[in-house]
Structures
1.
Amino acid sequence: MLYRTVPRTGDKLSALGFGCMRLPSTRTGGVDEERAIRQIRHAIDNGVNYIDTAPVYHFGKSEQVLGKALAGGFREKVRIATKLPHWEVFERADMDRILDGQLKTLQTDHIDYYLLHSLAGKSFRIMKDLGVLEFLDSAKKDGRIRNAGFSFHGSLDDFKEIVDAYTWDFCQIQYNYLDEKNQAGTEGLKYAAAKGLAVMIMEPLRGGNLAGRVPESIRKIWDEAPVKRSPAEWGLRWVWDHPEVTVVLSGMNDEVHIDENLCVAGDAACGSLSDEERALIGRVRDEYRRLMKVGCTGCGYCMPCPAGVDIPGCFASYNAHALFPHDREVKFQYVGRHGGLMGEKSCASLCRQCGKCAKACPQHLPIPDLMKEVSKEMEGMMDIVVPIMKGGLWCINRVKRVKRAILGEKSHA
């Protein structure tokens, strides 16, 4: 594992951080605690010492699971990062109440890296008026937090305003080869680093869209590289290539991906890419931008939807259909997951155009308008197909039950 230094404190942090926003889930949708704990501890045993969570992740379960994972001596091996949700703060006392609750949930007496969550210009100014900077000073003084920072989703001008407003120890921004000019972007990364802030990177693979299965045109570009690497490795190496980056957070929930990321994190030093490799990644970036329909990262800030739409899930299917137009399974999976075949409907056509999601979206996507496009492209005959498929599933299950009953009678005969 390679380590990078926090400028203000000299703290040595693992280049790879474990992000707890996408922990492994059970079949019913909850967190698979046993597996998540095993994965977190495996990462720690292999050099990861920075773990990022937040109260909103998995609707509060993320902090709970992390607290359990760090029991038995693991807490002393890591730095915990968690966040103050500004949307739950209405007065100064709320800040202390929330922090004290987090300390209890995480089973610790201090937070190593404490962030104001998902700031933009307006939300920061409101929090500032409520006394958040004095709160951070107080919490640092009494030892409840060690380092103060913020995560950011907004414009570059707002980012610079926030950086200049306080003596921050660190910040967290979205950054990958598709987002060089989005939100804080490269200019914001360099601006924060020049001011002495450690910079933690979220969404290095844009919610997984830059990893795993890739379109044929993208694969052909990667295949031109003399050194063969997975799309995920290329994406991570691109971020780590920047000397201003301190930690790259990965929302790891698969053992194979964790081990791959650990391996790369032990080799991907800043400046390790060649000019030819950077140019290759630039070509991949341009091709992705040509192919993708929606710039959704799957962060989930738009959720829950009042109408029941699984917004990130719908966009993921929509983008997958755009990237793999000849893959019939994409639409079938959309119908299965969102059309009510295997549970409650969560499809795009449920959208009521209320606009709540658009206001919460860090990417500032016109989500209600895009939902119309998703519905038109992905749903088609869904209202007819789903009842037929449900009827077929009912018949299959009915036959299975009858067979089990007959076999049971025979076994007792």
2.
Amino acid sequence: MKKTEMTEAILKAKAEKKMGWEQIAEKCGLAPVFTTSACLGMNSMPKDNADKLCAALGLPAEVSAALQEFPHKSFDKLVPTDPVIYRLYEIVGVYGETIKQIINEKFGDGIMSAIDFSMHIEKVPDPKGDRVKVTMNGKFLPYKTW
């Protein structure tokens, strides 16, 4: 089974079971953002967690096997060469669809504003090496119908 087929099966089962990403993540014992990203094909999942996810969604062993496969992360756009900008680009490439799915699930059909928006970057000391903490805060803008 290809990762794209795996994602289609998971999204279909998720909708049929009326489960959110947080519920699915709880069932498989992983964080919601990571779980969503793996289900969208951008990360691999350990066997035990993949099996739990499939049990919760009623999916076959082929889906578990596909979840465990290493992903191929490629981006179709021109990749920036500055290391910091590249890493941010990589984050959006790997987690962008996950962020979109979770925003839509929590707020509805819409976007996070980049105009009514703030971002904070903090240095978090860590004995294993300092960490960069980026906090983005944007107003939710629902799409309108007419």
